Amino acid sequence: MNDIEILKAKAWLANVPGGSLADGYLERWQQFASTELPVVTVFGSYDTGKSSLIRRLLVDNGVPVPEWLTISARHETFGVNSVECAGALLRDTPGLAVGADDVRGTLNTELASAAISTTDIAIVTVTPQLATGEYEFLRQIVENGWTPENLWFAISRFDEAGIDPDDDLDGYRQLAARKSSELASSLKLSSAHPVHVVSQDFAQMAGGTREVGAEVWDDSRAWDGMDALGEAINEVVSGDVVALRVSTEQRYWRQAVLLTVNELKDQLAASAPLLVQADIASTRREQWKISLDDVDNDARADLKGTLGQAVRLAYAGGEHNSANVVKDLQSALDGWFRKHERELDRLLQDVVRTDVRQRNEPSWKNLEELTARVTADINEEPEAQIEALAPHLRKFGPLLIDGLREFEKSQAGGSLKKVQARGVATQVASNFGSLGKGLALASALLPLAVQIVDAIDDARAHQAVAVQGRRSLNSHTDKLTQEVSALALNSWAEVLAEARNEIGQAAAQAELSDTLHDSAERLRAAIAEVEGILNPRKEA
Length: 540
Fold this sequence. Notes:
Blueprint: H1 6-14, H2 22-33, E1 39-44, H3 50-60, E2 81-85, E3 88-92, H4 103-117, E4 121-126, H5 135-143, E5 151-155, H6 169-186, E6 195-197, H7 226-238, H8 241-316, H9 322-359, H10 362-377, H11 382-410, H12 425-429, H13 434-437, H14 439-461, H15 466-506, H16 513-534
Parallel strand pairs: 1-3, 1-4, 4-5, 5-6
Antiparallel strand pairs: 2-3
Helix pairs in contact: 1-8, 8-9, 8-11, 8-15, 8-16, 9-14, 9-15, 10-11, 11-16, 14-15
């Protein structure tokens, strides 16, 4: 194991994305470091003999067994307790419940794990069946910076292994050697890692009794392995405790960094599908905007030609009835509108279909749930915020949650709420026909129609001046076409605005893309920086 630069580790933890962790780790270390005695913590799954092993060590050293120490095959230890023994501080821990989904099992595992993060020696107890459900958990412990000096193993209650030492002591010892080898092989322990095989309460001579004399184990003391374990602890106490504590400090900060970087990796992995969905939404939004602009440009170009043709036909026909001119213009506009209405409708129906399909994807639902939770969280009391966001914080981490919260505040509550206020494209389409049907349009067109009729009469009155008349006619035609076009485009702009709003709502998550990318980049940078802390280069 490479030594780490503790100052760099502390600095990294102080600047970890999502908020500093340095103070919490420093406070925990200082509390532990204030203990001058070497700390020996017994650790393992429940019913592996942790409490009975501690009782035996206490009794053999003439130390009264504290009331908190209970010996049972059930979950009886629910906290971390300690007692001084032979110049060391012995700690008992709750039984591991790896993979448990109940509150008590989860809490016990967390308490036990926290306890061995601050200990000079960890004694991991297993039964003669060796590690089973907790195998992967123990493998991670072995790989997280422990050395043979501070990580020991005890194959406990070995008198239950199947060979009675009173009848076959050689067979018992051969089985003990084989089990020790199997444990070392399965956990990939070095040959230097101590593995103690113990029968701390042979034949349950003491059972669950707290007050018991050491003589009860005199018959088994020669072979039960407890004297060797006690001597190993005595060697620690009489050895270089300062060097041991320095080693513990190294492991403590290494584990603090490792635990944190693993959490960051989990957060990065959890946010990846959200980022993909936000990027997809962003890409689709841009594509839809381009398509909408194409529809708009085509409609505008077509409108100029349609109206110009209608006005020219009115002039060419020498129309004297303004009502007929209105009818012709309105008919032309209806045809133009229906044509481009169909194009807009096709685009918005694609938006709706894509939106519905995307919202059925689990990762999109996760993003919607998260953004909705953050939106609601802003106006809640702090206590309610903490409770409501707790599962999201565990999964995605504070960096992403805080980023979403700040983004929502910057949008004055408008952006993420689009997720809650979805429109339907068909509602927009149902309003398309109003442009060509309303009396308001006919009323607006009437003054222009009167101008057209007047212009026709004026053109006829000046037929003698043909060139000048044509120029005047063309100029007037262009002017009237522009005025009618502006009137039509005002209504078209309202429809386009609703379409743009629909596209914006369908791709609301696209607005989160930058926030999510920023969070991801900060996580990646922090994870990359860890490599230099955990594996510093040795100077030549």
